[in-house]
Structures are given as structure tokens and as C-alpha cells.
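Q: Hi! Curious about what Glycerol-3-phosphate acyltransferase looks like structurally. Here's the sequence.
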Amino acid sequence: MGPVVFLADARSKIERELITQWLDEGNADHFVSETGERPSRLLLDATRIAGALSGRQDNPLVVPVRVAWLPPEREGGRHVKWADVLTLNNPRSPNIIAQRKIVKESPERAQVLLGTPALLEDLRRRHRREVGDTSPDSLARYIHRSAIVTLERAERVVTGDRYKIPRLVVEQIMDSATFRARLKEISSANDIPYPEALQRARSCLKELVAVQSKLATDLFAQTMRPLHSSAWTVHADSAQLDSLRQLNRKHPLVFLPSHRSYADALVLNDFLARNDFPRNHIMGGANLKFWPLGPLAKRAGTVFIRRSFGDDEVYKASVEEYFAYLLAKRFNLEWYFEGGRSRTGKLRPPRYGLLNYVASALRSRRVPEIMVVPVSIAYERLHELDAIAHEQRGGKKQAEGLAWLAKYAKAQRLLAGNVYIRFGDPLSMRERLRAAGDPMHAPAPDDDVPALQRKAMQKLAFEIAVSINRVTPITANALVTLSLLGVRDRSLTVGEVMAAIDPVLHYIEQRGVPTGNISVLRSLSGLRAVLADLTTAGVVTTYDEGLEPVYSIEPGQHLVAAFYRNSGIHWFVNRAIVEIAILDAAEIGFTDPLRAEWKYANELRNLLKFEFFFPDRETFEAELVEEMLLIDPLWRERKPSIDELTEALENSGFIMAHRVLRSFFDAQFVVAQRIASKDATESIDKAQLVDECVRVGQQMVLQGQLHGPESISTELFNTALKLADNLGLTPESATDAEDLTRRRTDFSRILAAVVKRIRLAEALDPSNRKVLPGGYS
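A: Let's find out. The predicted structure is below.
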């Protein structure tokens, strides 16, 4: 072995003494050179490195070394608490007095660690490849950063993977030859002086980069845990993390969870931390950046990204480079790709912005592979739904701040049942994009590359959403609200609720649908307990002054009840479409027209394409066949008449169309009517139209033209308006006003027919035709 240099990351006299003692005790004997030369020692400082190492002509082995200070062991782990900070002392970086006390009383809390050694020539080679600057000062900074990184890895062996944090990120990115070349292109194209572009990029990175620390990670977890630990019991399979951990050793992971609550990131990351999984870099919105939450969150791994970049090319380049850096270093990312919390309880359409930045790291060959992890987070109850319902009725959202946080924290002290975390199968981003037509690195000369990339990204996002839905469990509250919202102006006894739910439980079992706590619904006592919880939460009202208690949705709480129902309705959408198609065939008088390419079912699918995630037409029709066979197992063999199919549907014990799809089609019907009433020569103000739909829709509910208040939702109206846009019914200016008027009228007529068939489904449903027999125990 040749000469050896120890780089000591020592910030105090005590740390230098500990490192010296540790080396003198023989722990460095295996580094002695063949000539018997003892290793030299150098403080880990860029200036000292530049003077002592950068110009050396030999090839010494560089060995980083440091002292890791551990907090005292308590409650089964070594975590920093606010009580420690209030003493003005960080147990992970104690002051000199505390260091002396630890060495004397608890020496096991001071551990000397070695980073991975590297030959100086290897460091020079990597520096030239990654940075491109051959100056001694640049090499010294690179050696300093490399030593810090490898010491952090060594320390994680002791502290755990949940403390995997990047160091000196801004410095590394600003030293990157690739990034500097990108900035030169931007400065030239946008007439910005290069020094100014460099300064702006550094400023953008300081704004973006999560300057993480172990101290902040501990304190953030301790501060935020009361916002979820008292409310929910977490149900998640830690075994699922084992395979993800193995995958993470080779590839960076991008966690994309469903978004139903402010608590989503807290619940998920607390579960990951308790299982010693590396902490995700969470992409957060600027609305949560307020003091003191924002600064602490940023130091615990939250990356606050501007909602709009505008034409700021330097900021865009900084975001792209930061993402590429994190992914290349196998730091995991997390964000909520719906773009905001669900207002209805089901998945919202995805946003593609951040996914595009991740994809660019693949396309530029910065990262060989990225694995996307779909995550479902499903709650039995949420305390924030009243505010969401207020927004859906046209109310203004309360701005986040200290007052909001105090109110939220107070509500979170109340028990809200269970929360279920489920991980979908990881998706290879490279494979999925290629399969979807992304040309990646080898586009053909005539390829419209942006269009191909956009289409491939849409397909990937669709697959992610489907994967989230596929692992989202149905909860007891979802089934109870599904039943109570399905009856018109009527309360149900516990026996009637059970009779309505029982055939659905059988259906869920047949389908193999993932479930939460629905087993409690199989007994009267369990069902009563669920109804009592919903009554306590103010979602259900109970009248118990008669012969027996009866239950219905609390007035004003229909949107809240619909949120719970909608969390699982994607499992019933195909069934509901089959039901409406059967009723359409019965009305028209066809004989089993469902075999004729499912024409009407595909028309319904097209109307709902912005509400639910449907597969391609061939797969969709195959799924409809499966649903038909559940209604009539002998459908293929006996080729039943439409009357026999209708009878089989009624005899199945339940009908889903009115329970699952009514609020969506009702909202579309309101939008269609309001659009049809407009002058086709005038442009439509969409915000005003949504406000008008809220007012007119409320009138229609009062008149009995719509089933219930759960249809009066700004979210549903906006999505219906998106459908109308897609169908060309809201152009800025009409070239043929007469044709536009006709098409708007046709759209309204089509939806009126759908609403009519849903009312027929309601009438045929056993829950609405008669009082169901009891006999349950």
C-alpha cells in the first residue's frame, strides 16, 4: 500500500482528540504503507486540501474519518426531542462542554467512523468527468464534498437509513459542467449575461434545495406526529417495504400517493421512518410554506416549488437539474400528482409537470432507471371534510397559516378510525414510456418528439392512477354511505341498511376487491357501531324516538357522505354502466344488444372519461363481459332476452347505477342545460357558469329534478365543463352558431335520457322498492 492521508472531519478539540486516540490505538494499522510510513493526518477543509493534496504527484489513499454523536437511547430509539433543543444543545452536534460530559459518562455515544477510501488519482479522474474544472481549488472542493458524502453513508449504518440526507447540494450542482453549459445556452438565448445567469441559478437552488439535517428530521416528526397519531390507527404492510428497499439499492424511487388529506405526507412518512426507510424528498406547495412550519419542513426534506414558473428558464433549468441530481444519487421523491387534495373522494385527473422533470433525467441519460411507486392512502374518516364541502358549494377556501394550523391540530385530537396505506407494484418509468411510444434517445427524423413524449406521459400517468385505484381498499364507511345516499328522502333501519349492504359484500368477495374493516358490517352490532361513529361525526342523523332507530344522511352533509362513498366507487363503475346499458336496451326494445359491440356502454364511458380511469376499448368491453357474467352466469350459453336480463339484474339483490353514477350525470345534466340556454354567438365565462350551476342546481334539488345535494359540487361542475370543452361545445367563437346550438341541445338531451334511466335503476333497486326483511344477527 502506498501513502495514506486521513481527512479528519473534526469541528472541536475533543473530536480531534477522539480521532487521534482512535487512530493511535491501532485502528489504522492496516493502512500502513509497504515502506512502513505512518499515515498523515489532515483536517477536512477545502483550503487545507488545496494546499496539501491537490498538487501531489504521488497517489495517496484518501481516508475520511469523523466522530458521530448519538442521542441518548429512549423509547426504543435514538431521537432528538424539543426538550433537548430547549437546552440550547443538539445531541447530534453537542457543544464542547456536552462533548466532554458524553466522553466521560456515555462514551458509547461518540463513535469514530471511516468513510470509503479513494485513491487521489481516482478522485481526480471523477472530478474531471463530473466537473470539468482542472483547477486545484475546484479539485479540493470536490474532494471535500466526496469525503462528506461517504462519511454520511458510514454514519447511516449507525443511525439508520431514515437519516439519508444529501449534503452540499447547491455547491455540487453549481460546480457541474453540464449545468454550467445549460446556463450558458440560456444566457445566450435569452440575452442574459452569463454571470447573472449563474447568480440567478444559485438563488433559485437556495430557494429550492431542502437543506436537510438529522436534527430537523427528528423535530419535524415529533412536531407533526400529533396531527395524525391521535386521529388514526395506521394499517400498512411493512413487508411491502422490504421489496422496495431492495429495489432502492439499485434505483431511485418516486412515490406518487393519492391525495385526500393534509395528513397524507405525515402518515406515509411516519410509517416509512418507523420502518427505517430513507426519507423522501416531498415536493410541497407554497401554501404550506408559512412560518414556522415551512422552514422546519424544508430542513426535514420538503421541497417547496413555485406553482407557476412562467418564462423563467433559469428556474426551470434549476428544478430539472435538482431533480436529476437527487435521482442520480438515489434520493427518493414524493409528490401528489393529482395537483391537490381530492374534493370528491375519488382520484382527480393527474398533473404532468413534475413527472416531465423526472422523465427528462431519463431522456438525458442522467439516470439509467427510475421506479415509480403508486401509493393509496385511504381514510375511514377525515376531520377536514366540512371545509372541503363548503368549497364545493361555492365557498372560499381558508388560507393556510398559523390560525388554520391551530384549528386543524385541535380537530386532529379526535379519533377518526383507521387509515390504510397500500403500495402498488413499482413501475419502470423507462419501460412504460418506451412502450407508450416515447422515442427516448433515438427519435426518427420525422417524429414529432414533443407530441410523442406528451402522449407517452399521459399513458404513464393513467397507469399510475389505475394502479392506485387497484390497491385502494373499500371501507365500512364507504359502503354505509353508499347505501344511505342511494335512497331518496327515506331513513333506513339497521336491518334495511344491512340488507342493502349484504349482497354488495358478496359481490366484493366475488371480485376479490381489497377491503378495509368491512367485516364489521356482517353483524348488526358491528353495523350499529359504524352508524354510531358516523352519527358522532355528524355525517349521519339517527332518529330513535320511535319503535327502533332509523338512519339517514344528516342535512347539509351529503357532500361529506359522498366523499366517503366515492373513495371506493371505482370498483363499481363498470357494474353501473352495464346496468344502464341493460335498461337502455329494455327501453329501446332490442334483444340483447349488449353483444353488438357494447355501443351504448362505450357512449357512457366517453361521457365519464374525465371522471374515471378507463382502459382501452377492448379491455373495457372484456371487463363488461365479466360484470355481465356476475349478473347472469349463464349469459353466454342461453343468450337471454332483454327481459330475462332485466330480471336477472333485479334478482342480483342490488343495483349500483343510481348509487355510483347519479351525482356525476346529474352535474353534467345541469351544465348541459345551462350551456344549451346560452346564445351560441356569445362566449362563455366558465367561472360564472360554474357559479350559475351551483345556484340553479340547488333549485333543481329543491324541485326534485335532481336526486340530492351531493350533485351540487363545483368540482363536478368543472369536470363536466371540461367534458363540454372536449366535445367542442364551449368555443371562444362559433363559426356556425346554428350547428353549435343543435349540438348543445343534443348533449342536454343525451344526458336527460341517462338521468331518466338512472331513475329507473333507482326504482328497480330492492332498497327503494320495498322494506327489506331483517333476519340478520
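A: A fun detail: Confidence is low (pLDDT under 50) at residues 771-777.
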